[in-house]
Amino acid sequence: MIQLVRGFKDILPPETSVWQYIENTAKTHFENFGFREMRPPVLEQAALFQRSIGEHTDIVEKEMYTFAGSRDTLLTLRPEATASVVRAYIQHKLYAADPVAKFYTIGPMFRKERPQKGRYRQFQQINAEVFGVDAPYLDAQLIFMLMTFFARLSVSGLQVHLNSLGCPQCRPAFKESLSHMLSAQSDKLCADCLRRLEKNPLRVLDCKVPGCRKVVAEAPSMLDYLCRSCQVHFDAVKSALEGMAVPYEIDPWLVRGLDYYTRTAFEIQTAELGAQNAVAGGGRYDNLVEMLGGPSQPAIGFAVGLDRLADLVMAKFPPAEPGPEVFFLPMGEAAMEMTAHWASLLADAGVRTEVDFSGRSLKALMRRADRMGAQNVLMIGDQEIADRAVVLRNMKTRDQVQVPLDALVENVKAHLEKPNVA
Ligand code: HAM
């Protein structure tokens, strides 16, 4: 038998109901904050990610699904959505009428990471991206939007980790001092970090190897190197968060795994997911639009990891699907043919409907209806057809009513709408 590819997963019912609930909640919530949905493709030119995420990041160095397209272009299954949203913003000149634009996207991302619980090679994200606003109040508002989204889903126990990564004016001095310090301890770094030290020392701060973590604990903090305007920005983000009563922790080691960030960087973490503790992450990327050939426009955004969020929601509320409101139990060929027609009309009229065409005994059908959580069953046999009336039975109260066959849909609907009818 051909099996699933390692690192990929099927999301099956009833779990899908949890995903739908999360996605619908996100849509309503984000739209209340002025976001509109964008649906970029999952395939882009590899160069888009190489230039935006950064050549010397784990994602670009070893995690992208890249293959040859036509005419020597390399194509990549997107490892994240931000680069695609920026490309679309530039390509379709979405800034022309008004540079301020807010988009959200929902969909799969692909990273060839080592699979483990909470880490997959295809995973889902909800992204939110804002262009054209450099005010720090927006940074705080986005974090507020994210935390109230989690609250709407009744997910608690989350911490906001906050840092500033400075800007091209102040970051070089930090990088230099970090390189200096790391070089002095290079004998304690892993082979990957020795390479990172050469190409992109900030990435050493991300390394999970215990030896490297020990070295990093002594590293300088970007927060001590912020230039005046980055400091003012960061202070305003913190004070706006306090004003909105959003608790946060300053995390000077939070550098995020992508190179495009400037100033505010944040992650939402939980102690409930084991090693893969980040449920969402994001930050400012004020230079990316221009770097990818667009106008100079500041930007900020975040992505929520839906797989991890669904795990948190399900740990609290196991998925529960409502059973059919009406389960048709036809007895005999004539009843089956009529039922196919009526059950379809009833479903089309907005009632959750199920039919059993197996032809098994009434007892077997009742057992199945019970197992599926049917609220009512509707029994039809030759006698009911002759009488032009069917029996509708409430599975909980066991109450039975006769419903005329003529205008069945209206009659059943009217009965279901009566108070005390489950
Ligand atoms: P990221 O931190 O790489 O950021 O991913 C965001 C979230 O996606 C993570 O916090 C995690 O919940 C989830 N995630 C990442 N990798 C995996 C995986 N292999 N399996 C399951 N879940 C995963 C970004 O992608 C940025 N584009 C976020 C952003 C948007 N920054 C600005 N705008």
Outline the structure in words.
With 422 residues, the protein is of the alpha+beta class. The protein has 2 domains: 15-170 and 226-316, Bira Bifunctional Protein, Domain 2 (BirA Bifunctional Protein, domain 2, 2-Layer Sandwich); 326-412, Anticodon-binding domain (Rossmann fold), CATH 3.40.50.800. It is 38% helix and 21% strand. The strands form 3 sheets. The protein has an 8-stranded mixed β-sheet. A 5-stranded mixed β-sheet has the order 13-12-14-15-16, sandwiched between helices. The longest helix is centred in the N-terminal third of the chain and has 18 residues, at 15-32. The protein is elongated, with a radius of gyration of 28 Å.
In short:
With 422 residues, the chain is α+β, with helices and mostly antiparallel strands.
List the helices and strands and how they pair.
Elements lengths: L14 H18 L3 E2 L5 E3 H8 L4 H6 L1 E4 L5 E4 L4 H10 L9 E10 L11 E10 L4 H17 L5 E7 L6 H14 L6 H9 L10 H7 L11 H16 L5 E2 L11 E9 L7 E7 L3 H4 L7 E7 H11 L9 E5 L2 H16 L4 E3 L6 H10 L4 E5 L1 H6 L1 E6 L5 E5 L3 H10 L5
Parallel strand pairs: 1-5, 7-8, 12-13, 12-14
Antiparallel strand pairs: 2-4, 3-4, 5-6, 6-11, 7-9, 9-10, 10-11, 14-15, 15-16
Helix pairs in contact: 1-11, 5-9
Bound molecules: histidyl-adenosine monophosphate.
The parts where pLDDT drops under 50 for at least 5 residues are: none
**Ligand roster:** histidyl-adenosine monophosphate
Which CATH first-tier class of the largest domain would you pick? Answer: Alpha Beta
What fraction strand?
15-25%
Strand order of the largest sheet: 1-5-6-11-10-9-7-8
- SS field, number of helical segments: 15
Report the count of strand segments: 16
